[in-house]
Amino acid sequence: MTTSPQATLSNGLVRGTEEAGVVRYLGIPYAQAPFGENRFRAPQPVPAWEGVREATQFGPTPPQVPYAGAIGELLGSVRIDGDDILTANVWAPADASGAPVLLWIHGGALERGTAALPLYDGTVFAAAGLVFVSINYRLGSEGFSVLDGAPRNLGLRDAAAALEWVHREVQAFGGDSAQITAMGESAGGAIVAGLLARDTSRELIGRAIIESGPLRAQTARKAGRVTAQIAKRLGVRADREAFAALTPDQLLDARTAQSAGSSPLGGAPGFQFAIDAESLPRSPHEVLGEIDTPLLIGSN
């Protein structure tokens, strides 16, 4: 039997679903849609809403091009159209109170992936007594361009905003904000490493798991090689004004052309974190050995 539970958040009420003792809330915005005036800007707070917001469907997926060929068959894709891409999803025991929290961050080379993949369903975790949260964040050119006049590491900033949202709101779902484990694989592991390298984010994380996550951030010059090549291909300057005048599809097409013939292990430069005084002052590989946060790292 399915019922319709509600949770009271800082911004208003949300309505989810409940089945077999597990409640589920999908597509809850943790930041405003990063388009229009918010394009290539830091994540912005969500205004309060009136009434009850339905949280029964995954939010839109960030702009991306699915993997092609054999790797595409292995690493499937889901596309949900819309602008409100900065959302979180929650699975929790129906009677949760003070439960441990697991924040899952998906991978995809910083330019693919979504929390809406069936593989990332959190029901099993919730049935085991955890509050499971998954998030989307900006990808590719939207999230990791190095542009004059724009903040750097926007996708990482999105994840930091999502972590702050979880810390602030998870008690409404029966979670304990002092017991947040951040976990990610591949690019998601890199995001977790980036969060741990940020003092303001690390203090919100109780434990962390990094699986196959690159741990090095690059100089802005090196991290910006892919941006520079995309800008050259499109005949525009590598600045916020020029990139904001392009559609996400134009940037995706240019990235596809720029990376043609390359592979995940070599070829054209891809998206990476940039060392940046405001969003990532030090490379994670320099920080992780110094922190007290319990940390599990594996590579595959």
Average residue pLDDT:
95
> What fraction strand?
15-25%
Give the SSE order as H and E letters. Answer: EEEEEEHEEHEHHEHHEHHHHHE
Approximate shape: globular
Keywords:
Rossmann fold, globular, 3-stranded mixed beta sheet, about 300 residues, alpha/beta, 11 helices, single chain
Kindly describe this structure.
- The protein is of the alpha/beta class and 300 residues long.
- The protein has one domain (2-298): Rossmann fold (3-Layer(aba) Sandwich), CATH 3.40.50.
- The chain is 27% helix and 20% strand.
- The strands form 2 sheets. A 9-stranded mixed beta sheet has the order 1-4-5-7-9-8-10-11-12.
- The longest helix is centred in the middle third of the chain and has 16 residues, at 154-169.
- It is globular.
Secondary-structure map with pairings?
Elements: E1 2-3, E2 6-8, E3 13-15, E4 17-19, E5 22-29, E6 52-54, H1 69-74, E7 87-93, E8 99-105, H2 123-127, E9 131-135, H3 140-144, H4 154-169, E10 175-185, H5 187-197, H6 199-202, E11 207-211, H7 220-223, H8 225-234, H9 240-244, H10 248-258, H11 284-287, E12 295-298
Parallel strand pairs: 3-6, 8-9, 8-10, 10-11, 11-12
Antiparallel strand pairs: 1-4, 2-3, 4-5, 5-7, 7-9
Helix pairs in contact: 8-10
